[in-house]
Amino acid sequence: MNSDFYRKLVDLYAARELTEELDEMMDAQAYNDPELAAEMHSLRDTVDLLRAQPPVEYTEETHQRILMKLYARGAQPEMTAPEPAHLQYHLPIQS
Fold first, then answer.
1. CA dihedral 58, 59, 64, 65 (to 10 degrees)
2. What are the pLDDT digits (tens) for 42-95?
3. How many helices (H) does the chain have, and how many strands (E)?
4. Residue 16 region, left (φ>0) first, then alpha (ψ -120 to 50), else beta?
5. Does 84 reside within a domain?
6. So what's the pLDDT on residue 69?
7. Percent helix, strand and coil across the chain, each rounded to 5?
8. Does residue 93 form part of some domain?
């Protein structure tokens, strides 16, 4: 297989999503290609560091700060959330 094939698999290698056989093939190819080895290992280290980070909490405050920044820069974001049920038309109740 050519080196382009291995370069296309680097992201899957970094995320540890390859089969054991393909993982070994990537390591063998990296032994002969120092540029590929550097890319594979630096990307895998980056993915591992990102996965080790605690998840980011997205709160209502975060949402409002983002909206204010957008408004300050002149953007007019459209909200796509459906209207709440309490805004529906009320029918008269007959007794």
1. -60
2. 999 999 999 999 988 989 999 999 999 999 999 888 877 666 666 666 677 776
3. 5, 0
4. left
5. no
6. 94
7. 60, 0, 40
8. no
With CA atoms as reference, report the closest residue to 44 among 70, 13, 17, 4.
13
Q: What's the CA dihedral at 38, 2, 6, 3 to 10 degrees? A: 20
Q: Token pair 């093939």 is at which residue?
A: 25
Q: Which residues, at least 6 apart from 39, have a Cβ–Cβ distance to it below 8 Å?
A: 7, 10
Tell whether pTM > 0.85.
no
Domain that residue 57 falls in? 1-76
Residues recorded for the chain: 95
What is the total count of domains within the chain? Answer: 1
Per-residue pLDDT band at 39 (split at 50, 70, 90) = very high
At 2-36, the pLDDT tens digits run 778 888 899 999 999 999 999 999 999 999 899 99
41 domain residue, yes or no: yes
Give the 3-state secondary structure of residue 27. helix
